[in-house]
Amino acid sequence: METSNFYNEILTEHNIRPYHKHDMPDATFSLNGVNPSCGDDITLKLKVVDDVIEDASFIGDGCAISQASADIMADMVIGRSKEEALRLAEMFIRMIKGSVTNEEIDELEEAGALKDISHMPARVKCAVLGWHTLQEIFEKNEDANT
Amino acid sequence: MSINVNISHREDFPLLRDSNIVYLDNAATSQKPDCVIEAVEEFYHKHNANPLRGFYELAMLATEQLENSRTTVKEFINAKFEEEVIFTKGTTESINLIANSYGMNFLGEGDEILISIMEHHCNILPWQFVASKTGAVLKYLECDMDGLISDTAIEEAITDKTKIVAITQLSNVLGRENPIARITKTAHEHGAIVVMDAAQSVVHVKIDVQALDVDFMAFSGHKIMSPMGIGILYGKKELLNKMPPFLRGGEMIESVTRTDAVFAQLPYKFEAGTDNASGAVGLMAAINYINSIGMEYMHERTLMLTKMCFDAICKIPHIHIIGAKDSNNHNGIISFTIDNVHPHDVSQILSESNVCVRAGHHCAQPLCDFLGFKSCTRASFMFYNTQEDIDTFIKSLSGIRKMMGYGD
After folding, report:
1. Measured between CB atoms, which of A2, A15, A38 is closest to B344?
2. Could you name the CATH architecture of A3-140?
3. Which domains does chain B have, with CATH numbers?
4. CB distance B352–A3 less than 8 Å?
5. Which of B345, B356, B321, B322 lies closest to B402, judged by CA?
6. What pTM did the predictor assign?
7. What is the pLDDT of residue A144?
8. Best residue in A16, A21, A38, A66 to probe B by mutation, most B CBs within 10 Å?
9. ipTM over 0.90
């Protein structure tokens, strides 16, 4: 896997000019996700109304992969239900582990640009940080009345 | 000393000889020359028995190998007595030994432990532990942004309350050598002892524990081309004698009853369990190799390579070298940041050109906080690096921002 192909335009664009990297004063959920070994540190913010993610954003810093992945994720989950977002999270994490179908990669849209992480064990944590944090928000708040 | 950059020492190192790897992570661990690998193999082929036990020929041969290594180390660091040289598994274990055996027993409420802001975590965490258990206070000696610890800072930080000064001889991030003899003098005037972490310096600076007058010194073999898992604790005999053992068990006793034990003399009191004899033999071979190449030559060559790389990096926009402005104060270590590119991305992109560098906080988070960055990339050199290594590194480094989508 050549790195020069890996740092493609989708990844670098989301890293340099993220659409969803900003604070969200009216967020209903906010959770910090950290990779202590490498220093990726994001806080994911969601505005969830009637189990639908009306808005998603993140703040923090880290490597290009962690930042781009979180931004792509925010883009994808806005407007989706909690269940749909969790299904995408599960699919994304499976993609990073290398067990996903081509149809599923298509369904992951821009997040599919990160599929080659499955050949880069050292970067797996960076790619899944945002998605893991999303899962954690919903696991921790299973009974929350949203 | 004139150094010919065209002379290559790569041939001595099988991992480098048989590959196109550009190994610039020498501050993390060094590569191993044939003579070290062969010495370890020979020990297992010809001398393997449990050393310091057994009265048969083979066991005595194993013991002799272990003790020969101790003598070699004693001469290498210019210790006064062989029993002042204790085998451990590395710097971390050595410092934990001092903290647990000396710190926990000779420190009390209100005593002060002084460490520098540029310590590796292995010279921070054991002292945090001692402070939390004994009521001693952990204080920090700070450097300036160039990594220099001034005489004034030393004079102000060391007081009659100071009982231990634990400091690295050479920062693993900045590469700067600290004024150890100066610190030792002041510490001793105030009745404090000095623990020197030589993990990073041992390959660059000729260590003379008597000239520096340090009370304890620790290093790891793997940073000077020996196998991993063997390291050294040096301690002054009078201090080691009054300290209790750190680990207890086999090989560190004179006699044992149901309720009590009489401990062995130095150095064995601190070498519980079977020594890493093959590691010690590898360490001896590594020191012999260093002596054959010449410590001064190795260091001069490293400084020359450091300067070539330093000057080339300075010409690349958006890259900032951390620490001293003079490459001669970097001793083979160049840590840097690139504007808006995370060190892990830097490291991965360099890896495509087979360039191995370290990215992260380098086990020195307090220093990173102090200097105002979260993480950085570090390239570190040894004498066996070449001009081609630097050319490949610089070429790859120059293209990183563009690859990450920046216009320049």
Report:
1. A38
2. Alpha-Beta Complex (3.90)
3. 10-24+294-403 (3.90.1150.10), 36-290 (3.40.640.10)
4. yes
5. B345
6. 0.93
7. 52
8. A38
9. no
